[in-house]
Design a protein that fits this description.
By secondary structure, the protein is mainly α. It has twelve helices and no strands.
């Protein structure tokens, strides 16, 4: 018996599908930064990306899903940038976050709760109660640093302290700003230095312990990056699973 072969549109190359999805996300980011989420339509994105409106719906069913994927990609790219800096301490980790966040206005807007730019996504983030910089809790990582003598156990609340320092330097109130705007590298240094002064034991570490702290820091960052990549993959609709991560 002869097998019936269906004639129709051949399947697209997965690599081309992935490239197209990221081109759509690039266009979305550009338009949202220019006009804000509320004024950016699927039609606008399609025109800017050079695709048909229906093509976008092959990847994402709604505008909300499209924008959620964009923010998740921003987190992945931010964490990859931090990892490239090879932070070796808690302070350097947060300094890396500061430097990378200053290059990503969408994530800054998410942290600020900028409803003019992001619309309802700021409310969703507030309801979730999650920091956009972290993919998983700090407790186990900090406990390892305490064990190695790099971080003080008291007074506790390490995540609160570290995030307060990060937010404080990134979003200094207008009345406290200096006339000269600080560079991203300078702010990253100040974040790292402040966290180290506030949380470190002040005791020098042996070479082995310093290496162990560096490994723990990179392991924590790798775990956060993996979670961010998984969340991005879950939101890259219409793209084959094996091709979804950035």
């Amino acid at each position: 018996m002869r097998r019936t072969v269906k004639v129709g549109r051949p399947p697209q190359d997965p690599a081309r599908q992935l490239e197209r999805a990221h081109r759509i996300l690039d266009a979305t980011a550009e338009l949202v930064l220019r006009w804000g989420y509320g004024k950016t339509t699927i039609e606008d994105v399609a025109k800017r990306a050079g695709v048909a409106k229906g093509t976008i719906y092959l990847h994402w069913k709604t505008r909300d899903e499209l924008f959620a994927a964009l923010l998740r990609r921003e987190r992945v790219l931010m964490l990859a940038e931090v990892r490239q800096g090879a932070p070796a301490t808690l302070g350097e980790l947060y300094g890396g976050y500061a430097r990378a966040l200053l290059r990503r206005p969408l994530l800054q807007a998410l942290m600020r709760g900028d409803s003019d730019l992001l619309g309802k996504f700021t409310r969703q983030r507030q309801q979730a109660g999650q920091s956009p910089t972290m993919g998983l809790p700090l407790e186990a990582y900090v406990a390892e640093l305490v064990k190695l003598g790099a971080v003080r156990a008291e007074p506790g609340d390490h995540a609160m302290v570290a995030n307060a320092v990060l937010y404080g330097f990134l979003f200094v109130p207008d009345g406290l700003r200096t006339e000269v705007e600080e560079s991203a590298d300078r702010i990253a240094f100040l974040v790292a230095d402040t966290i180290d002064r506030a949380m470190s034991t002040g005791r020098p570490l042996s070479g082995d312990d310093a290496d162990a702290v560096a490994r723990a820091t990179l392991d924590f960052l790798a775990a956060a990056e993996k979670i961010a990549e998984q969340r991005l993959a879950a939101s890259m609709g219409g793209t084959p699973k094996a091709q979804r991560s950035v």
